[in-house]
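Reopening this ticket.

The earlier resolution said the output was attached, but the attachment link was broken on my side. Pasting everything inline this time so it's all in one place.
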Amino acid sequence: MTTLFISDLHLDPSRPAVTRAFLDLLAGEARSADALYILGDFFEVWIGDDDDAELNQTVIAALNVLTSSGTPVYIMHGNRDFLIGKQFCQQSGCQLIPDPIVINLFGRDILLVHGDTLCTDDTEYMQFRQQCRSEAWQSALLSHGIEQRRLLAQQMRADSKEANSNKADDIMDVNLGEVLRMFEQHGVDLMIHGHTHRPAIHQLDNSAQRVVLGDWHDTGWIIRYPADGEFKLEEFSII
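Inline output:
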């Protein structure tokens, strides 16, 4: 059996091929997997569990079919979909997991994070993250109607895109000191994350490994972790 890890699908109506690829995964390989982990930024934007947009309902229904068949699905908040909540989990059968979390897989402890908390050089984003993860900020946002939240989300995405265009690439990547701190704090030698859209397997000097999942666009990225422990980070074609 194999455990699957994916991240940064950024599901959005404007990219139907990505949605089809994900639905194919659910109906195919995931049916025989031990578990599926989705490490954040599953949706391009999530404005609340009460958003009944067609894409959301299609994905929730497909997830429910998979979880009802016996394959557990674990989902972590990303910086795009941190408003996913209890109603989504009840309808889809997914289990929301904290960021960070250590899981034990086939006898090995593995640290899972979305990845944005590792990018400590981007101080502007880190300040925004602290703000938008507060209960008061989220309650204020959710107090608006669906259409107003959609407009607010569009504006926030535009502002984020403009801000990122003015930042150096290395600022938006992980800070090595923070990576090492996380390894030491959690006592593991393997970390899996997404967020940076820079897929790779990084071998650290202390023999620890940091595995970065890529985003889904023309291609997708997946980690297949079988019982023998020889995991693979693989790219596959979407279009």
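Reporter confirms the inline version is readable. Helices lie at 16-27, 54-68, 86-92, 123-132, 135-142, 146-165, 176-186. The first helix runs from residue 16 to 27.
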